[in-house]
Amino acid sequence: MRTTLQKTADTAHSWYIVDAAGQRLGTLAVRIARALSGKHKPSWTPHIDDGDFVVVINAEKIELGGKKWDEKVYHRHSGFPGGLKTQTAREIHDKHPERLIEKAVRGMLPTNRMRDVQLGRLKVYAGAEHPHDAQKPQPLF
Fold it and tell me: Whole-prediction pTM value?
């Protein structure tokens, strides 16, 4: 028996759509990260980028459990002394609801050179409208 490895020329990127309304952030991020990395395909190979495009709609209707809206804290630093900025999940959601999903999915992907390429295939929209109808995205789950 021979093991066949997938080649980069053999990859095909499909389009999927996910409705985030009423779904938990962590569970949704895991499923999206698997689709972006291509692990849901039987032809998955670690060194080949075989992931698919994922369009997420209704990001403003995402859910967090318990007190996480006020207790989950995101940090960023400007690089200057005293430049640490801290925001809660509710503050980020009020200004940019799509960033919560982007940050969660980024944390689920491996830290390597393919992460930015895979995140480039993630399209998140706060409302129900998106400009990717021409690609005919299929429901992911």
Answer: 0.91
